[in-house]
Amino acid sequence: MSDTSMLAAKVLRTLEKKGLKLATAESCTGGMVSAALTDLAGASNVFERGFVTYSNEAKMELLDVSEETLSQHGAVSAETAREMAEGALRHSRADMAVSITGIAGPGGGSAEKPVGLVWFGLAVKGKEPRAEKRIFLAGERAIVRRDSVATALSLVLEAASKA
């Protein structure tokens, strides 16, 4: 079993023990967090739904990310990550939602937003949503995406453990 699979299994066990449901909102990972969870038996007990919102239009239509947020801060920003997580929570029956938006590469980066920059959002019912920034090894798309999945699962595990 891979490290990601073991982490996903721990997330599932913790969410089930706490009686919590999870939703995901993914951009640069394209559903990899959802896949990591649903690869495991028992996912249906806690995984409520996943949104893959790769385009800005999808972020606005499915998650209510505001056009103003996208134009002022861009798709890869704390503001967008928070709004994605809030939207996933609002458009699901989940108790918490995690979001991922970033630049996996190898192209698409800039001096301000380099390849490997990923923002994560976490929204938990009854709590203020938050965003966290990570910068992963640039130039290796697969590594950025793999590490983003592990980070998202770790954020969910931490939040679920405190619930």
Describe this structure in words.
This protein has about 160 residues and is α/β, with parallel strands linked by helices. It has a single domain, classed as Alpha-Beta Complex (Maf protein). It is about 45% helix and about 20% strand. The chain has six helices and five strands. Strands 2-1-3-4-5 form a five-stranded mixed sheet, with helices on both faces. The chain is globular. The two termini are about 25 Å apart. The relative contact order is 0.19. The model has no long low-confidence stretch (mean pLDDT about 95). This is CinA family protein. It comes from Chelativorans petroleitrophicus. InterPro entries: CinA-like_C, CinA_C. Pfam families: CinA (PF02464).
